[in-house]
Specification:
It is a single chain. This protein has 183 residues and is mainly β. Helix content is 11%, strand content 37%. It has helices at 22-29, 76-81, 95-100; strands at residues 34-35, 37-41, 48-52, 56-59, 64-70, 84-89, 115-117, 123-125, 130-142, 145-157, 169-171, 174-176. The strands form 3 sheets. The protein has a 7-stranded antiparallel beta sheet with strand order 3-2-6-9-10-5-4. It has a 3-stranded antiparallel beta sheet with strand order 1-11-12, with no helix packed on it.
């Protein structure tokens, strides 16, 4: 017999966390590299977007992906109201876009030459090797973030079999490109 699990929003935190501070936790997580994505969506007030390094593939059938958004994000209200998003997998040549979408919201879409709009209303960034469109399947409030699960409805892939650019990575507060360990 399996014991029922508490809902995701009811996380039981032990009384003793061994003195772990948010700064200690953040510092340790900086040692784990992450791919860099930019999530964009349409809203009643115009285009919205933000940099996310928490992207993950969850399932092949159905095709599900996930990412997190902090409760302090200026994009949170728009995301909670959205039906769909576009997730851009940034290439090494796009670290400027990662920085642009990590800044204040009013600077993200000021250069109209960097993006266009899909027929479904979401902004799409030019020159991104791969992007996917996903409908919001589930939003789960966990700790100080919302965990977003998206059902992939479209894949755009300009890489062919050999990508023109390496993926952009974020590690210890800086952007990197991967290098192969094989000959």
């Amino acid at each position: 017999m399996t014991e029922a699990q508490p809902p995701a929003t009811d996380i039981r935190i032990p009384d003793d966390l061994s003195g772990i501070t948010a700064e200690q936790y953040r510092a340790s997580m900086r040692h784990y590299p992450a791919g860099v994505t930019v999530v964009t969506l349409g809203s009643a007030n115009g285009p919205i977007g933000f940099t996310a390094t928490s992207f993950a593939s969850l399932s092949l059938e159905p095709p599900l992906v996930s990412f997190n958004i902090a409760h302090t994000s200026s994009s949170l209200t728009a995301l909670r109201a959205a039906d769909s998003v576009v997730i851009h997998f940034l290439g090494e040549h796009q670290h400027d876009l990662a920085q642009r979408f990590a800044r204040t919201a009013d600077e993200r879409f000021t250069d109209r030459s960097l993006w266009t709009t899909l027929e479904t209303g979401e902004p799409v960034l030019h020159g991104t090797p791969i992007w996917i469109r996903a409908t919001i399947h589930q939003l789960i409030t966990i700790g100080d973030h919302d965990f977003v699960v998206g059902l992939v409805t479209r894949v755009h892939d300009d890489t062919d079999e050999r990508p023109a650019a390496a993926p952009l990575l974020y590690y210890r507060g800086r952007y990197y490109r991967p290098t192969s360990l094989e000959g």
